[in-house]
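Quick one: structure tokens for this chain, please?
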Amino acid sequence: MARTGLSVSPTAFEMGSQETLPLTFDATPVLLEGESIGWAQATLVRIDSDEDVSAAALLGPVAVTGSELTATITALVPRKRYRLVIQFEAAPNKIWAPYLFIECPE
């Protein structure tokens, strides 16, 4: 099974610790004709400790609408940095994993 990581633009996003925000990835650029998203899952890792904080900071599963994948983030720790990865299958054995760094200054 091949997995490919993709960085997104911008590569970092700033978010307050008390905010709850939906972050959406548009998968259209990596989908070939006839491909669609079969499943998706998100993980959120605090970079300084390499701790998976998905259970506490991700609200629900990834929402898939056509080629858009949305993860809702909440309750981050101030002055920490996170990496959000949304893995999804575009075709059998073709898995993409775009990631975004989230800065939480306050």
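The two ends are 39 Å apart (CA to CA).
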